[in-house]
Amino acid sequence: MITDRQLNIVPFVSVDHMMKLVLSIGVETFLTELAGYIEEDFRRWEVFDKTPRVASHSRDGVIELMPTSDGILYGFKYVNGHPKNMKEGLQTVTAFGMLADVASGYPRLISEMTILTALRTAATSAVAAKYLAPEGSTSMAIIGNGAQAEFQALAFKAILGVDRLQLYDIDAAATAKCMRNLKGLGFSIKSCASPQEAVQGVAIITTATADKQYSTILTDNMVGSGVHINAVGGDCPGKTELHRDILMRSEIFVEYPPQTRIEGEIQQLPGDHPVTELWQVISGKLPGRNHAGQITLFDSVGFATEDFSALRYVHDKLKGAGFSEDLDLLADPDEPRDLFGMLLRAQTKGLAQPVI
User: TM spans, by residue (predicted)?
Assistant: First the structure.
């Protein structure tokens, strides 16, 4: 329940404040701590309100709302996905979110979530790999070296100890950017000329491409036994990255089946194809990887509880940190029923001039 005195004042975390908060904590520490919150909330999965995200699709992209609640706090995220934006000098994905008190409905936090979504996506990938990747994995291919690539690399390094990367992107400039950004951060990095070269000899394969279409980034012959696939890019209807035959050979793990069957790689499969929910593995109800030769696939589309975890983490880290500004967001009359009187008093105090 809210106990703050100024209920109308809501902390707002701008992009500038988010960057300062992340850098003050340290990127890898931020990812590790955030992963802890995500893992904690997966363990209490059954308490959450869950629904597939509310999506508005157009020929150019998608705009989505992602709500959830644990009965105490409510959170939602606004997020878009517009692959064409990159050609226009814009971000493919942008987002903001809110955390609120369920008992009163009053907001507790408003935050940018473009940077935060990149961090939570990477942290979620690493949490899944913690349970699904081959034991002792230290090598990873990243196919698709755009905005998500560095975050994925750092999350896997911080949480699993991955320090060898093999990179490929259809745009060589994206790979060069990724190598430049990760230089000096503890990786051995190889730029590859093809997806086939990138996946050779690695334990983990991450696909994080942006095209809004059915694609075949990985073909069946490229995936050997014993690897873990972290499929990040396929996250809306009509957008996939893996050949169907790979799915048929893999043990598939998902966040929330009603959403993933619409948006994930498994949209290529019958609606009753067996999958395992990640929360069941994290909570110990079902096994994750159970033999060395198994191909595990995390069909990641992103779910609202992960954004909830991220907002909850940021809210906790803000206490006394100074990385937010106060928004006078909510009308707060002295008498709750006298909203119009509040308007009149503002005129009397000279806060607003009447329009004649």
Answer: none
